[in-house]
Amino acid sequence: MQTQVHLLHHVPLSPFCRKVRLTLAEKRIPFSLKEERYWEGGTEFLRLNPAGKVPILRYEGRLLYESQAICEFLDEIHPTPPLLPDDPAGRYEVRRLCAWFDDKFHAEVTANLLYERVNKKIMGTGYPDSQNIKTGSARIKYHLDYMSWLLEHRRWLAGNALSLADFTAAAHLSCLDYISDVDWDRAPAVKAWYATIKSRPAFRPLLADQVPGFPPPRRYADLDF
Amino acid sequence: MQTQVHLLHHVPLSPFCRKVRLTLAEKRIPFSLKEERYWEGGTEFLRLNPAGKVPILRYEGRLLYESQAICEFLDEIHPTPPLLPDDPAGRYEVRRLCAWFDDKFHAEVTANLLYERVNKKIMGTGYPDSQNIKTGSARIKYHLDYMSWLLEHRRWLAGNALSLADFTAAAHLSCLDYISDVDWDRAPAVKAWYATIKSRPAFRPLLADQVPGFPPPRRYADLDF
Hints:
The structure is a homodimer. By secondary structure, chain A is of the alpha+beta class. The first copy, chain A, has 2 domains: 72 residues, Glutaredoxin, CATH 3.40.30; 133 residues, Glutathione S-transferase Yfyf (Class Pi), Chain A, domain 2, CATH 1.20.1050.10. Chain A is 53% helix and 8% strand. Chain A contains 8 helices and 4 strands; from the N terminus they run E-H-E-H-E-E-H-H-H-H-H-H. In chain A, helix 1 links the parallel strand 1 and strand 2. In chain A, helix 5 packs across helix 7. The radius of gyration of chain A is 17 Å and the shape is globular. The termini of chain A are far apart. At the A-B interface, helix 3 and helix 4 of A face helix 3 and helix 4 of B. Chains A, B: InterPro entries: Glutathione-S-Trfase_C-like (IPR010987), Glutathione-S-Trfase_C_sf (IPR036282), Glutathione_S-Trfase (IPR040079), Glutathione_S-Trfase_N (IPR004045), GST_C (IPR004046), Thioredoxin-like_sf (IPR036249).
């Protein structure tokens, strides 16, 4: 049995940190959290991670960076329950969708909505740019439609089993749901998928997150939203 | 024996396309190239890839996207020679460094230098922004120093064997070398590493690339640069 407690340096509304939290919790790997104001830099934090960002996982004395690399590592050394399938084609599809959300969705939606509304205020880097908000609000529709199309053909995003692709997508969407930027009525299939993910024990701690100055809407933590 | 010829939709000076070309060639998977003016969009191209970007690999009748997912897929189904090691910690380190170059190096260096100098002109989206060029020129020094530090401790970037991390880094650096933006004198260890990669048969086709309007410097293709 695993008894050592690992430490995740994180911020609550980071989709990349949330992806690692979901993976650790789903695999029942005990860990504690330490919040980092990483944007303030400072030599102590840069000594932790020269890339100057979170998540950072302190795992058996080693520091691990990059959420996708961390999650695949955890999946390899704690294979139960699996978050990537056994066959190369299935694994390709999970990785493709992880990149879709961490690159494309992140650049088009997360950066334009979450970073404009929340990160700028917390980091003291100015006011939300209304053009970016407008772009993000338009692009999220396209992504919800794409997810709906995937879920018409599959039980989970990458196939018929829950995978890291679902956690990656849910990590982004949950941050946007915290700031009421997801129009669930547009995509009933995505809403049903998110309700299922939301009710997993691994998801509970994310629903209890509170960011000072940004109270979540009531339905954020509501399993019957 | 593999005899089917696969098709890679690409542009010559894309580090992501180059990474896939290097992986295919290293594994001696026969493929042909088709150049795409992906930024012009158009329904035919978007039908190929809804994400609207290259590389796209047509592989046994299937379309594959996202360079890292493609390369890991190719490594799994064509395991010789291996581009990821067998142990989870070694695989983590390769994936971490791939993300370092494809995310951090890409955003700080490739986007500020290559996209400003070349892509803007080819795509007709304006003139290079001198502030971005300045930022990119400053940041590449930091990355060359980081690579030097890695290569003081290891034969290859991620350990003692050639891996996808080396191809990822070389894909970015080779595009920047094409536009004379790499100060090799700053980092002799990186220069020696690049000379070794450059002399591999898999690298040859990249050295023959010619982009109209942007003739490469003579030393770009020179193995003894």
